[in-house]
Write a structure and sequence with these properties.
GO cellular component, one term (chain A): plasma membrane
Helix content of chain B: 40-55%
InterPro entries (chain A): Cation/H_exchanger_CPA1 (IPR018422), Cation/H_exchanger_TM (IPR006153), NaH_exchanger (IPR004709), NHE_CaM-bd (IPR032103)
Number of helices of chain B: 11
Main location (chain A): membrane
CATH architecture of one domain in chain B: Orthogonal Bundle
Subcellular location (chain A): Cell membrane
CATH architecture of one domain in chain A: Up-down Bundle
Oligomer: heterodimer
Largest sheet of chain B: 2 strands, antiparallel
Number of helices of chain A: 33
Largest interface: A-B, 92 and 84 residues
Distance between the termini of chain A: 34 Å
GO molecular function (chain A): potassium:proton antiporter activity; sodium:proton antiporter activity
CATH topology of one domain in chain A: Na+/H+ antiporter like fold
CATH class of one domain in chain A: Mainly Alpha
CATH superfamily of one domain in chain B: EF-hand
Order of helices and strands of chain B: HHEHHHEHHHEHHEH
Shape of chain A: globular
C-alpha cells in the first residue's frame, strides 16, 4: 500500500511538474491577442479540445481558451500545489524526514525542477522577485514564528537573546568581512577588486542566521528549551541588525570615504530600526487587541483582524525601512494574549490553524524557489573566495558563540554548557533571507554575481551539511552524557518520579530572575491594560487560561457523559481482583518481559513538562495530548469522587475556605460578577456559582482542597465488595437518564457546583445537564449516606466524610481514563 | 516585593529560616515574593487552591501529590516557614555545607531527606511502606492511557520484586533508599 501510494505520488509529482513547467513556457511565448481563438504553442500537450484551427470562417466559437488572462494566478497556484505535494510525498517515507530535514528535501525538489526548467530553457516564473519574497513570502513565516513563540521562556531569556542577536551578528559580520578582505589581498584568488565596504556588505548578508532554516532543523533534534529559545530569538532579532548593517554598508559602499560620524549615525540608526520596529509592533498589537474587544457580533471575521493588523505592522515598518520582522513579531506577541481572550473559541482555533498553514506554505515555497533559482541564475564561481567564505562563516560563528557565552553565562540562571554552545554554533544555518538580500544587491557592485553565488553556496552548505549532520551529532553528544543505569524498572520509575517532582517544584518557585518586573507588569496589566483591551476583563487565573487554551471544555463535556464513566468500571473491578490475588506466588519475569516493560515505560510515561506548550515542532500545531490527558483524568476522578455520599454537609465557613474568596465576602468584592453559566439561577447558586471562566479554575481548586487530606487507611479497598461497586455504577447508568428540573438545592452552597461550570459558556443545556447531575448525585448521596467512600481510589478518613465533601481524594485513580 | 503590613518578612524570621533551611538571604526574599504572589487571599498562608492555580502544576502528572507534600498532616494551610521547609529539600547540596558542623540532625536537603520526600509522594497513608496499590496509583498517574491495567500491574509487581528484600510485598524506606541514585537530585 505504501509502495503503491508512493508510486502514485511520484507519478503525480511528475505530472504536476510537467504541467507547471509548461505554463511557464507559455509565458515566454508571446501569445497573439485574439478575441476568440488562442493559438496553442506546439510543446504543450493537449489541454483540452483544440479550438477551431481555421480562423477563416467567422463562426461562433464554441470553445475558447484564454490563457494569458489567468496565467499568473494559475502558475502561482500550480507552484503552491506542487510544493505541497512534495510535502505530502516526504511524509510517505517517514524515515527520510527523520534524517533529512524538510528544508533539504524541498531544496532538492526545487533543484530538480530547476534543472528541468533549465533544460527546457525556461526562466523561473517571474513571481520570484525580491519584492515578492519580502512582501508576500516572509511575513507569514515570521508571523507563524512570532505567534507560537513561547513567551515566558522568551522573556526570561531576553537578555541572552538580544545579546546574541545584536552583538553576535555584529561580531560575525565584521569578523567575516575583515577576514575576507584579508583574503582578497592575496592575488592568487583574483578577487582584489572587492574593497572593504563590499566585503563588509557581503558579510552582513551571510552572517544573519535564518529562522526558517534553523527551526526546521531544530524541531527534530529536541534540543533543550533554553537553546531553542535563544536560537529562535536570535534569528528573529538579528534581522534588525542585518537590516541596519546592510543599509549602512550599502550606503557606504557607494561612498568613497567613511567618516566617523557615519559610524555614529549607523549606531543611532540601529536603535531607530530596532526600537522602532518593536514600537510599531506593540502599537499595532494593542490596536488589534482593542478592536477584538468589539467583535462579539461579527465572529466570522475575527481572525481577519489578526492577520490584517500584523501584516499592516509589517508593511508600515517596511515603509519606514525599519525592522519589519521585529514589528510583526512584537505585534503577534502583544496581540496574542489579549486577542485569545476576546475572540471566541472557534476563532481562536481558526487563527492558529491559518497562521500555521500560511507559515508552512510560505516556507515550503521559499525553499522550493531557492532550489529552482539556484539552477537558473547565472553563476560566477571562484573557488578561493567561496571556500574561504564557508570557512570563515563557520569559524567566526563558533568563536563568536564561545566568547559570547563566556561573557553572558554569569548572568544566566541556567548557564550554557559546552553541548549547548555546540548546538548554538552548529545550528547557525543561513537561509532564505540571506538569499533574498543577495538578490537585492545593487548592480553597481562589481562582483554581484559572485556574491550571489557565494550566498547560495553557503546556504546550501549549511542547510544540507549542517542540517543533516546536526541530528546525529547531537545524539552522539547526548548519548555520551546520560549513562544512567537503567537495569531496573525501579530505577526508571523512580527517576521519572523525581524528575517530575523537580519540575513541579521548579514551576512552583516560578522564575528566579525578572520576577519583580514580571510581577509589576502583571499588576499593570491587570489594572489598566486588561480593562481597556479585553471585553470581560475579570481577573482571570492562569488555570482558566490554560483550560481554555487547551480547548478542554469540549473534552470535559464529552467526558461527563455516561459512557465515560461506565467504561472506567472494569478497571476498578480488575484492580480489586488483582488486589485479592496479591497472595499469589510471585511471578517470574523473563528477560523479554523486562525489556517489554522498559519499552512500555519509556514510550508511555509522561515526559517532563516542557514549560511551554508550544515548544514542539514547527510544522505541527502544538501537541498537547499529554497535558489534556492529565487534566481530563483529574477531572474524571474528581467527578467520580464527588458522586456518592458526599453532600451531607455544611460547615460553610470551612468549605468556603476552599474557594478563592475569604468566607463571607460576596463575589463582587474580588471578582466583578460576570455572566453566569446558567440563566435563571438564583442567589444560592449565584453565591457559589462563578462566572464560567473563573469557575473553570475553581474546578481544580475543588480537587486540591479535596485532595490532600492525609489518608488514614488504604483498606477501604478491602472493605468494599465488588458487588457494591458494580451496583453503584449501575445506579449511575440508571440515573443519568433522568431529567430533572433545575432546582436550587440549598445544599449547593456546600457542594461545589463549580464542576458544572466546567463546561463551555453555552448556557442552558449545560446548566441543565450539570444540574441534573448534581441532583442525581445528591439523590444518590441520600440513598447511601453510610456508604464507604468510593473504593479503590478515594481513600479518605471516615470522619472527614461528613465534615467536608470536598475533602475527597480523587486523584489517585488507577483506572483508565 | 509584596509588602503587606501584616505579613512582612522580618529580619529575624529570615535569619531563622536561613538557619533552618540553608537558603541564602536573597533566595529567601525571592521565594517570599513568590509566596506572596501566590497568596491571593493575602492572609499569609497558602491553601491548596493557591497551589492549584499554577497551571504548570496542574499539568504535572504528580502535581497533586507535590502540593500535598507541602501540607503537613491534617492541615490545609501552609505558612511561609512550612513552605520554605518543604522547598529546602530541593536546595542543591553544596560542598561547603555550613551546617554540617553545627546541627546534629541532617540538613533538610540531604540525600536521605530528598529520598524521604520522594518516598512520601508514593506513600499516602504514611505507614512507611509503599504497597502495591500505592505504587499502582502513582504509576497510573505517570503513564498515559494506552497501558492496560494488567501491564501496569505486572510492572508494579516487578518493581516490588526488585526492591523488596524482606518479602512483605511492599517497599519500605530502607529498601527504597537502595535504588540506584537518581540524576535529578543535584539538578536544582
Amino acid at each position: 500500500m505504501d509502495f503503491t501510494f508512493s508510486r502514485r505520488t511520484g507519478v503525480l509529482l511528475i505530472i504536476w511538474i510537467v504541467f507547471s513547467v509548461l505554463p511557464c513556457c507559455n509565458g515566454e511565448v508571446p501569445s497573439k491577442p485574439t478575441s476568440g481563438v488562442t493559438i496553442v504553442p506546439p510543446i504543450k500537450p493537449d489541454n483540452g479540445p483544440q479550438a477551431y484551427p481555421d480562423a477563416e470562417k467567422a463562426n461562433l466559437p464554441v470553445f475558447t481558451m484564454d490563457y494569458p488572462r489567468i496565467q499568473i494566478p494559475f502558475e502561482v497556484t500550480l507552484w503552491v500545489l506542487l510544493a505541497s505535494f512534495a510535502k505530502i510525498g516526504f511524509h510517505v517515507y517517514h524515515k527520510i524526514t527523520v534524517w533529512v530535514p524538510e528544508s533539504c528535501l524541498l531544496i532538492s525538489i526545487g533543484l530538480i525542477v530547476g534543472a528541468i526548467m533549465h533544460s527546457v530553457n525556461e526562466e523561473p516564473p517571474a513571481v520570484l522577485t525580491s519584492n515578492v519574497f519580502f512582501l508576500y513570502m516572509l511575513p507569514p513565516i515570521v508571523l507563524d514564528s512570532g505567534y507560537f513563540m513561547p513567551t515566558r521562556p522568551f522573556f526570561e531569556n531576553i537578555g541572552t537573546v538580544l545579546w546574541f542577536a545584536v552583538v553576535g551578528t555584529l561580531w560575525n559580520s565584521i569578523g567575516i568581512g575583515m577576514s575576507l578582505f584579508a583574503i582578497c589581498q592575496i592575488e592568487a584568488f583574483g578577487v582584489q577588486d572587492i574593497n572593504l565596504q563590499e566585503n563588509l556588505l557581503f558579510a552582513s548578508i551571510i552572517s544573519a542566521v535564518d529562522p526558517v532554516a534553523v527551526l526546521n532543523v531544530f524541531e527534530d533534534v529536541s534540543v533543550n528549551e533554553q537553546l531553542y529559545i535563544v536560537v529562535f530569538g536570535e534569528c528573529l532579532f538579528n534581522d534588525a541588525v542585518t537590516v541596519v548593517l546592510y543599509n549602512m554598508f550599502n550606503f557606504v559602499a557607494e561612498m568613497p570615504v567613511v567618516e566617523p560620524v557615519d559610524v555614529f549615525l549607523g549606531v543611532a540608526r540601529f536603535f531607530v530600526v530596532g526600537l522602532g520596529g518593536m514600537g510599531f509592533g506593540i502599537l499595532f498589537g494593542f490596536v488589534a487587541a482593542f478592536t477584538t474587544r468589539f467583535t462579539s457580533k461579527v465572529r466570522e471575521i475575527e481572525p481577519l483582524f489578526i492577520f490584517m493588523y500584523s501584516y499592516l505592522a509589517y508593511l508600515v515598518a517596511e515603509l519606514f525601512a525599519i525592522s519589519s520582522i521585529m514589528a510583526i513579531v512584537t505585534c503577534a506577541l502583544t496581540m496574542k494574549y489579549y486577542v485569545e481572550e476576546n475572540v471566541s473559541q472557534r476563532s481562536c482555533t481558526t487563527i492558529r490553524h491559518v497562521v500555521k498553514m500560511l507559515g508552512s506554505i510560505s516556507e515550503t515555497l521559499i525553499f522550493f524557489f531557492l532550489g529552482v533559482v539556484t539552477i537558473t541564475t547565472e553563476h560566477e564561481w571562484n573557488w578561493g573566495y567561496i571556500l574561504f567564505t564557508l570557512l570563515f562563516a563557520f569559524v567566526w560563528r563558533g568563536l563568536g558563540v564561545l566568547v559570547l557565552t563566556q561573557i553572558i553565562n554569569p548572568f544566566r540562571t541556567i548557564p550554557f554548557n559546552l553541548k549547548d554552545q555546540f548546538g548554538l554554533a552548529y545550528g547557525g544555518l543561513r537561509g532564505a533571507i540571506s538569499f533574498a538580500l543577495a538578490f537585492t544587491l545593487p548592480d553597481n557592485i562589481g562582483r554581484r554575481q559572485l556574491f550571489i553565488t557565494a550566498t547560495i553556496a553557503i546556504i546550501l552548505f549549511t542547510v544540507f551539511l549542517q542540517g543533516i549532520s546536526i541530528r546525529p551529532l547531537i545524539e552522539l553528544i547526548n548519548v555520551r552524557r546520560t549513562n544512567r543505569n537503567l537495569d531496573t524498572i525501579n530505577a526508571e520509575i523512580h527517576c521519572r518520579l523525581m524528575e517530575h517532582t523537580i519540575a513541579g517544584i521548579e514551576d512552583l518557585c516560578g522564575q528566579w530572575s525578572h520576577f519583580y518586573w514580571k510581577d509589576k507588569f502583571m499588576k499593570f496589566n491587570n489594572r489598566i491594560l486588561r480593562r481597556i483591551l479585553i471585553r470581560d476583563s475579570r481577573a482571570e487565573s492562569s488555570i482558566v487560561a490554560l483550560y481554555k487554551k487547551l480547548e478542554l471544555q469540549n473534552a470535559m463535556e464529552i467526558l461527563d457523559t455516561v459512557s465515560g464513566d461506565i467504561s472506567a468500571a472494569p478497571s476498578i473491578v480488575s484492580l480489586y481482583e488483582e488486589k485479592k490475588n496479591a497472595g499469589k506466588p510471585k511471578k517470574m519475569f523473563l528477560a523479554a518481559d523486562l525489556r517489554n516493560m522498559h519499552d512500555i515505560l519509556s514510550k508511555n510515561m509522561y515526559k517532563i513538562r516542557q514549560r511551554t506548550v508550544a515548544f514542539t515542532g514547527k510544522h505541527a500545531l502544538p501537541n498537547d495530548t499529554q497535558t489534556k490527558e492529565i487534566l481530563i483524568r483529574r477531572h474524571a476522578s474528581i467527578r467520580r469522587s464527588l458522586r456518592p455520599g458526599s453532600f451531607q454537609t455544611t460547615k460553610v465557613p470551612k468549605s468556603h475556605k476552599y474557594f478563592s474568596l475569604p468566607a463571607g465576602q460576596s463575589l463582587d468584592s474580588k471578582f466583578p460578577p460576570g455572566r453566569q453559566s446558567f440563566t435563571g439561577d438564583q442567589e444560592t447558586m449565584s453565591e457559589v456559582a462563578y462566572p464560567t471562566r473563573r469557575s473553570r479554575f475553581s474546578q481544580p481548586t475543588r480537587s486540591s482542597s479535596r485532595a490532600m487530606m492525609p489518608l488514614r487507611r488504604l483498606d477501604t479497598l478491602k472493605e468494599a465488595s465488588s458487588i457494591d461497586i458494580l451496583d453503584e455504577i449501575k445506579d449511575d447508568g440508571a440515573k443519568v437518564g433522568r431529567s430533572v428540573p433545575r432546582t436550587n438545592s440549598s445544599s449547593s452552597d456546600s457542594r461545589l457546583p463549580a464542576r458544572r461550570h466546567f463546561h463551555s459558556s453555552s448556557d442552558n443545556d449545560n446548566g441543565s445537564s450539570d444540574n441534573f447531575r448534581n441532583v442525581h448525585h445528591e439523590a444518590e448521596g441520600e440513598e447511601q449516606p453510610p456508604s464507604p467512600p468510593p473504593p479503590a481510589w478515594a481513600v479518605e478518613p471516615r470522619d472527614n466524610t461528613v465534615r467536608n465533601p470536598l475533602l475527597r481524594r480523587p486523584q489517585w485513580n488507577p483506572k483508565k481514563m | 516585593m509584596g509588602s503587606r503590613a501584616s505579613t512582612l518578612l522580618r529580619e529575624e524570621e529570615i535569619e531563622e529560616i536561613k538557619k533552618e533551611t540553608g537558603f541564602s538571604h536573597s533566595q529567601i526574599t525571592r521565594l517570599y515574593s513568590r509566596f506572596t504572589s501566590l497568596d491571593k487571599g493575602e492572609n499569609g498562608t497558602l491553601s491548596r487552591e493557591d497551589f492549584q492555580r499554577i497551571p504548570e502544576l496542574a499539568i504535572n502528572p504528580l502535581g497533586d501529590r507535590i502540593i500535598n507534600a507541602f501540607f503537613p498532616e491534617g492541615e490545609d494551610q501552609v505558612n511561609f516557614r512550612g513552605f520554605m521547609r518543604t522547598l529546602a529539600h530541593f536546595r542543591p547540596i553544596e560542598d561547603n555545607e555550613k551546617n554540617k558542623n553545627s546541627s546534629a540532625s541532617e540538613p533538610l536537603n540531604s540525600r536521605t531527606n530528598k529520598l524521604l520526600f520522594a518516598f512520601r509522594l508514593y506513600d499516602l497513608d504514611r505507614d512507611d511502606k509503599i504497597s502495591r496499590d500505592e505504587l499502582l496509583q502513582v504509576l497510573r498517574m505517570m503513564v498515559g492511557v494506552n497501558i492496560s491495567d494488567e501491564q501496569l500491574g505486572s510492572i508494579a509487581d516487578r518493581t516490588i520484586q526488585e526492591a523488596d528484600t524482606n518479602g512483605d510485598n511492599s517497599i519500605s524506606f530502607n529498601e527504597f533508599i537502595k535504588v540506584p541514585p537518581v540524576d535529578g537530585e543535584q539538578d536544582y
